[in-house]
Amino acid sequence: MKKSTKRFAFLMTLVLLVCNLSGCGATDGATDTENDSTSAYTGFDVDLTSLSSTVVYAEVSNMMTDPDKYEGKTVRMSGTFSVYEGEAKIYYACLIADATACCSQGIEFVLDGDYSYPDDYPELGSEITVCGIFDTYYEGEYMYVQLIDAEITTA
Predict the structure, then answer these.
(1) pLDDT higher than threshold 60 for residue 3
(2) Concatenated DSSP letters for 30-97?
(3) How does DSSP classify residue 155?
(4) What is the pTM of this model?
């Protein structure tokens, strides 16, 4: 190998090592961030509102593929309000687009309290911030994720 190629390989390895070490000690998302003054929650185990769009999209993907890791954690996220009307139930979700805005994924939420759609919900497609407790449930043989005891706060 040429000397310049070895030096480049060494520098790239060093850069990757520094990047990996800079993440040591971090938890999922940002921990114990400042609280939204309109929220009853006192802290967040996973705060997706303080992360870049690429990292948020990756973290939500992690939540979908490894939900046991997040079960029972308090989550705060911002995105677009969406509604899906199923045959027996209406589903409410906070959708997050990836960095290129070509793809989106979201997390369903269930508000804490007695609310009626559309009267007590934001306008479809509006930007929202949702806080809630990460949970899973089954419908038939399929498992889904949701935020329970959720509340919509200022975006």
Answers:
(1) no
(2) B-S-PPPTT-S----SEEGGGS-HHHHHHHHHHHHH-GGGTTT-EEEEEEEEEEEE-SS-EEEEEEEE
(3) -
(4) 0.71
Q: Which whole number is the average pLDDT over 114-139? A: 95
56-71 residue pLDDT tens:
888 998 999 999 999 9
CA distance 34 to 154: 14
Do 43 and 27 touch, CB atoms closer than 8 A? no
Q: Give me the sign of the Cα torsion angle 71, 76, 78, 80.
A: positive
Q: How far apart are CA 139 and CA 123, in angstroms?
A: 27
Q: Are 77 and 94 in contact (CB under 8 A)?
A: yes
Under the banding of pLDDT at 50, 70 and 90, the label for residue 50 is confident
Which amino acid would we find at residue 155?
A: A
Q: Which tokens sit at 92?
A: 């409410």
